[in-house]
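Supplementary Note 3. Input sequence used for the single-chain structure prediction.
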Amino acid sequence: MTGIFAGKVALITGGSSGIGRATALAFAHEGAQVVIGDINSAGSEETAQMITAAGGEAFFARTDVNRAAEVAALVAATVERYGRLDCAFNNAGIESSSISTANYPEEDWRRIIDINLTGVWLSMKHELPQMLKQGGGVIVNNASALGLVAFAGASAYVAAKHGVVGLTKTTALEYAKSGIRVNAICPGFVETPMLERIGLLSDPKAKQAVTNLHPMQRMGAAAEMAAAVIWLCSDAASFVTGIALPADGGYTAR
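The predicted structure, written as discrete structure tokens, is reproduced below.
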């Protein structure tokens, strides 16, 4: 396939649905060979099949981003299969329940921090050495608009996503001279299976309340987030590193 990423390799964690799937498809559309890491085998296999059915190249490797050995194996499998790693979208994450800080169960807190923050760090920990070895690359981490502002009842999620923003900026500084760019996207509320799971799409009143949080008076689409990732990974953003890019319909501008 031809496109701006022809001959390049893109790794996406959390590619079984939502923003991850949309981004995997967008990379493939632009000619990249795509690797998907996720714990959801059925959804990820479907994403890979969607890519190959359209004439692209993709494979899936089951990966829990909270397990260092599995993340290392994912990167190793990518390099073994395709010989390099040019772009990584560290997208895997989970939602949180609405619970006040003092009442937050410790087990739930640790799980959200482990997957949404430590999982991003583990992914970069194993992606960066390969990018250094080949002389460059681009990483985009999926933070959130809630990595920039607070949201009552979501202390663990907000803490994790703020951490992703700080981690992204620090890593960008560390590797700026090595040809590696590191940025984050900060989506607003996007219509994905994650929002469905927490009831924000099926309940009309809840959906309208969340929609009203955005000055554009609508939620985002997964394809719009994918477009932001594609731009950040492209040569059009060659002088962009260390940013947390809001893609939030004006949510954080209020």
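The chain has one domain: 9-243. The chain is about 45% helix and 15% strand.
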